[in-house]
């Protein structure tokens, strides 16, 4: 997938303006710089320094212009991807050496010439500015060379040549400074939203027109490396927010160069079609072997609570909890390293819906709880995994989730679901039979007393409805839908299991062969939505109480036209719309029209069968 994002019109015009003015900066810079150096008796410190800064303007103007022009072609030549950062890095490195040379000349004339106190102070302050500027150019040069330096990442087990050790050490120091929060980027200091809306030219919004799908109202398509991992909607149902944790790598043709985009969140006012995008960090590129991503680039996570008012930026050594409305950021630095990539790529970290509690899990199954308001941390009960279990294998924990009221934490793994109350210590464990059941997803209802899980299951482990109710169709399944057969010949079925925590009882709904990837209860707990890996949406009407005894009634079945393992689905607070997301797309569906569309198709099938 190409990583090129086409420049906006204002960027292109600014690049052309820089290109036109570069000869002017070059002429005055060379005149002020070299004329003073060539005539030492007539050396004038102010003219020399001004000439230096004119030459710097020329270099940075060319740098900006080249970066914009490289983004003009949709598919740049392959050699450009490798040559451009090298040329840019060499230019910045030479600029850094040029700055240090200028610094030496300035200091020589400041301390060897009799100057007035005001001129001496001005010259000394300028020398300090040139030093800082030279260091900045050196770090910028290392940033350009970073794709090649990452070849010697510790995860690749490659020993660097001796002459690169200094560059690798300085680059690691630069990365450590940035990740520690000592040099937060501009985007992190301007986390204000979703009240201020700006036009985002990189997001494409389609208003569905007559003749299309009646139930589909709007579609938003993001560009670049934006892949939805967190989806939510504000309480007034007017703003949808979707976050990307930036952990999806993009590889150029041939798999030689990789791109890792930073985490970002989009606030979409879908009534006025306004989008605000906030990005945390910078795009990281790297040179790779066999499409391997350096561990140092992958080991982080980005979470947004259900209300959308806060965000959590997580690194292996610290947790940063911030507010979109102000610049306050709370930092937690737990003992030991945080494991952010669990089984199947899911992150064993979670934030409560209101953003005041945070939970994480280590490789031994120990769960920790951080009360942000009280600023207290404490361990909870451990998940019952094996002594040799580590994240990434089949025994590892692949997810945590808070109940809607924030009082309970569910830990999800191969063995089952561990549920515990963070205040009372109450604990409940639903064990799965690993030989016949495979967990795929999980959701609480909005009371926190029922939960739905998606599992792949063998036929003998399916629990059939025990009785009928006025809300259910005939409970006896005469024939199961087609399942998926594995290499051993076993046939697995996709099942939604609704669990009543108070009654410790459950019911299974067989939905097909494709694994369920996301589940969501409506705010009034009367409707359950499920999306499978093939992009098929199913809606069930369920009883407000005792749904584990009274089987739900299928209310709609719709092909969304989206596929993927990380599909997300939520209800709007007004119960009128369903928001679905996968990869770089968000779709808004009208629930009533979804029901009508399915009834029309279902009735037509019935007539055809007759």
From TrEMBL:
Keyword set includes Membrane: yes
Transmembrane segments: 12-35, 47-66, 86-110, 122-145
Keyword Secreted part of the UniProt annotation: no
WD repeats: 509-542
InterPro entries: WD40/YVTN_repeat-like_dom_sf, WD40_repeat_dom_sf, WD40_rpt
Keyword field: Membrane, Transmembrane, Transmembrane helix, WD repeat
Pfam family, one: WD40
PANTHER family in the cross-refs: TRANSCRIPTION INITIATION FACTOR TFIID, TRANSCRIPTION INITIATION FACTOR TFIID SUBUNIT 5
Name this protein carries in UniProt: WD40 repeat domain-containing protein
């Amino acid at each position: 997938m190409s990583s090129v994002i086409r420049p906006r019109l204002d960027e292109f015009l600014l690049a052309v303006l820089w290109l036109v003015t570069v000869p002017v900066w070059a002429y005055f810079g060379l005149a002020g710089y070299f004329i003073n150096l060539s005539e030492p008796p007539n050396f004038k410190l102010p003219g020399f320094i001004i000439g230096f800064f004119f030459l710097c303007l020329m270099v940075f103007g060319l740098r900006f212009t080249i970066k914009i022009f490289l983004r003009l072609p949709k598919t740049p030549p392959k050699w450009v991807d490798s040559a451009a950062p090298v040329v840019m890095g060499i230019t910045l490195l030479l600029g850094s050496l040029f700055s240090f040379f200028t610094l030496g000349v300035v200091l020589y004339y400041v301390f060897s010439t009799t100057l007035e106190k005001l001129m001496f102070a001005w010259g000394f302050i300028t020398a300090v500015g040139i030093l800082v500027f030279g260091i900045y150019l050196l770090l910028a040069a290392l940033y350009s060379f970073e794709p090649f330096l990452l070849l010697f990442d510790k995860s690749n087990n490659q020993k660097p040549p001796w002459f690169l050790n200094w560059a690798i050490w300085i680059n690691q120091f630069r990365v450590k400074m940035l990740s520690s929060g000592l040099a937060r980027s501009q985007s992190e200091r301007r986390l204000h939203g979703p009240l201020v809306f700006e036009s985002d030219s990189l997001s494409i919004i389609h208003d569905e027109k007559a003749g299309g799908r009646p139930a589909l109202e709007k579609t938003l398509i993001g560009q670049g490396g934006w892949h939805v991992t967190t989806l939510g909607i504000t309480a007034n149902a007017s703003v949808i927010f979707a976050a990307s944790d930036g952990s999806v790598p993009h590889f150029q043709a041939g798999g030689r160069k990789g791109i890792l985009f930073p985490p970002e969140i989009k606030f979409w006012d879908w009534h006025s079609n306004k989008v605000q995008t906030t990005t945390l960090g910078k795009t990281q590129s790297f040179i790779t072997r066999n499409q391997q991503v350096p561990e140092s680039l992958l080991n982080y996570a980005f979470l947004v609570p259900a209300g959308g008012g806060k965000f959590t930026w997580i690194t292996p050594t610290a947790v940063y909890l911030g507010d979109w409305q102000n610049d306050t950021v709370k930092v937690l630095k737990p003992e030991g390293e945080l494991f952010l990539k669990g089984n199947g790529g899911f992150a064993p970290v979670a934030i409560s819906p209101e953003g005041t509690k945070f939970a994480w899990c280590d490789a031994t199954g120990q769960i920790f709880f951080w009360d942000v308001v009280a600023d207290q941390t404490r361990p909870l009960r451990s998940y019952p995994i094996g002594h040799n279990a580590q994240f990434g294998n089949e025994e590892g924990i692949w997810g945590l989730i808070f109940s809607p009221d924030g009082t309970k934490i569910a830990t999800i793994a191969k063995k089952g679901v561990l549920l515990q109350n963070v205040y009372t210590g109450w604990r409940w464990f639903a064990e799965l039979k690993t030989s016949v059941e495979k967990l795929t997803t999980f959701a609480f209802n909005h009371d926190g007393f029922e939960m739905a899980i998606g599992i792949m299951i063998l036929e003998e482990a399916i629990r059939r409805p025990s009785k009928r109710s006025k809300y259910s169709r005939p409970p006896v399944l005469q024939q199961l839908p087609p399942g998926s057969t594995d290499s051993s010949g076993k046939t697995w079925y996709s099942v939604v299991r609704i669990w009543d925590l108070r009654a410790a009882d459950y019911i299974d709904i067989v939905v097909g062969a494709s694994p369920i990837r996301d589940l969501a209860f409506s705010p009034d707990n009367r409707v359950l939505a499920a999306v499978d890996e093939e992009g098929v949406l199913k809606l069930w009407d369920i009883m407000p109480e005792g749904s584990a005894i009274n089987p739900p009634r299928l209310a709609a079945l719709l092909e969304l036209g989206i596929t993927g393992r990380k599909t997300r689905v939520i209800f709007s607070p007004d119960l009128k719309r369903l928001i679905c997301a996968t990869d770089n797309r968000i779709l808004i569906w009208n629930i009533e029209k979804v029901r009508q569309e399915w009834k029309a198709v279902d009735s037509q099938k019935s007539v055809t069968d007759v």
